Amino acid sequence: MKSGTMCCQADWYVPNLCASTSILFRSQPLRCSRLRNQLARGQRLRELLKQSQSAPLTVAEQISTIYTETNGYLDSLEIGQVRKFLVELRTYLKTNKPQFQEIISSTKTFTEEAETLLKDAIQDQMECFRLQEQL
């Protein structure tokens, strides 16, 4: 029996990721959209969390980035729009929801209150972003 992950149906075999090189060795095309989406999210997240040494992301910014991506809020955006959206979201959080940063800094945890603030900010910013993109 092959080692790997069975996806959605028993006849679609998806081989394991090689942990040392992070390369996906494919014996057959990925047929499971859920797995494809999960892999794409992981790739986007890795790219989004790359930081400049001269301007590293704060913990609150990292939390907002990871939360936004892993909860599917960025799935509806084109790959080229994602970084711009996140920059605008960070600015929006600093300007309109400064309590988010304060909660993370003071408690060192991602509380329910912080999550609510972040969800509201994401929804508000997504509406603004889509309106801007339509112009």
From TrEMBL:
Domain named ATP synthase alpha subunit C-terminal: residues: 36-124
Signal peptide: none
Coiled coil region boundaries: none
Pfam families: ATP-synt_ab_C
PANTHER family: ATP SYNTHASE SUBUNIT ALPHA, MITOCHONDRIAL (PTHR48082)
Protein name (Swiss-Prot/TrEMBL): ATP synthase alpha subunit C-terminal domain-containing protein
Organism in which the protein naturally occurs: Gossypium arboreum
